[in-house]
Amino acid sequence: MRVLMFGWEFPPHIAGGLGTACYGMTRGLARNDVDVSFVVPHAYGDEDQRFTHVVNASDVEALYGSTGSGADDILEKMSFIHIDSNMVPYISPEEYEEYHERYVKSGRQVWSTTDDAWKQRYTFSGKYGANLMEEVARYAVVAAQVAKDLEGQFDVIHAHDWLTYYAGIAAKRVSGKPLVVHMHATEYDRSGENVNTQVYAIERAGMHAADRVIAVSNLTRNIVINRYGVPAEKVVTVHNAVRFAGGPCKTPERGVKDKIVTFLGRITYQKGPDYFVEAAAKVLKRVPDVRFVMAGAGDMMNHVIRRVARLGIADRFHFTGFLRGEDVHKMFQLSDVYVMPSVSEPFGISPLEAMRSNVPVIISKQSGVAEVLDFAVKVDYWDVDALADAIYGLIKYPALSGMFASKGLEEVTNLKWNDAAAKIKAVYEAVIEENKKQ
Which residues, 6+ apart, have CB-to-CB distance to 85 below 8 Å? Predict the structure, then answer.
């Protein structure tokens, strides 16, 4: 079976859990005898292609004007706008400002002509920044061309998250192949009730155009059905998994004797960083020899720093900025407790990564990963007192902490990408069979 897959990022160049999930998924699919061609707007050349073929959309020559591409009507319905805010906060405000300033000063075109005057090659930034909507639309044009170029070389199309849904639709219209869209996070997760209407419209269009929608949790599945009006029989839940490192890693040396409690994720409304800070202040009133680490970046960073200062706990708080690759693993190894107090978390891979490092975890009940974990402490994200009590219990009672760590490691070991990929393959087989009957 062959799949044409559209994503927005692929390791080692990632900004969040989406890229990590795509990598684990493609590895799992390869072990289930599924051949994946993974298209990204901008590839850097150092992606791990042992399990998938990475296609750089910036290298694809698309027919000028996309005539007959199947993307025309998409572009007509979509206005090109410049995004002046960090709408999808996968980068920090500082990184966004720097990127936007560099983009404007460069004066570079977003496309360049080739030797054929009737063809053009788009230059994608592959970032969550300036001209994001414009890139989403042009990605659809290139996707149509990729589908043409690979005609007869794939059986199904798979698009990840709203940034690639128009690309998936365009590829489907060109090829006639069935489309599966993957919902990793909805606009309601990112923005609460104050949704961005453009993003919502794209999400809804993508899911209604798809032959099947894969949700990363039952929590997300219910949002898809109730908020987007997608028929229940069309939406399938496939929980994410975690990938274990190939061999043992050396444990980094700790420079302090204090207990370390870690928050690792985007510092945005969705992730609940302010609840972590308030709980930390309560814990420190009872146990002074604890350090709290906030690893990540996002649009709430300055707000959180100011709140830490007002609470008088700055000497007990550490901000690392956004961590990548091996630094993430080291941070987990240095931690005594990991906390994910998300307001709305479609799934949440980071608790699995922490458990993999033998660290006890506390997660919000409002997370998809809570559906598959028994040996994680679960609290309501808004219940700061319960969160503080959970942190206190895990750092003060070694037997309790040891039980959650050991049982959690056993539990997470059974959450394999091979199994998740097998379920995804079954979805492919179902839509391919339905497509043949039409």
Answer: none
Q: Give the separation between CA 218 and CA 334, rounded to whole angstroms.
A: 32
Residue 307: exposed, middle, or buried by beta-carbon count in 10 A (0-12, 13-18, 19+)?
Answer: middle
Name residues whose C-beta falls within 8 Å of residue 155's C-beta, 6 or more positions apart in sequence: 1, 2, 3, 177, 428, 432
Judged by DSSP in three states, 53 sits in strand
pLDDT in tens, 144-157: 989 998 999 999 99
User: Across the chain, which distance is largest between two alpha carbons, in Å?
Assistant: 71
Phi–psi pair at 290, nearest 5 degrees: -135, 140
Structure confidence by residue, pLDDT tens digits, 168-224: 999 999 999 999 999 999 999 888 888 888 889 999 999 999 999 999 999 999 999
Q: Report the amino acid identity of residue 212.
A: R
Q: Global pTM?
A: 0.82
Alpha-carbon distances, residue 252 vs 58, 192, 355, 434 (angstroms): 39, 38, 17, 52
- What amino acid is encoded at 408 in this protein? G
Question: Measured between alpha carbons, how far is 294 from 319 in angstroms, rounded to an integer?
Answer: 5
Radius of gyration of the chain (CA): 22
HEC string for 392-416: HHHHHCHHHHHHHHHHHHHHHHCCC
**Domains plus CATH for the chain?**
2-241+417-432 (3.40.50.2000), 259-413 (3.40.50.2000)
Contact indicator for 128, 93 with CB cutoff of 8 Å: no
Strand partners, 259: 290
Angle at 22 between CA 16 and CA 23, to 5 degrees: 100
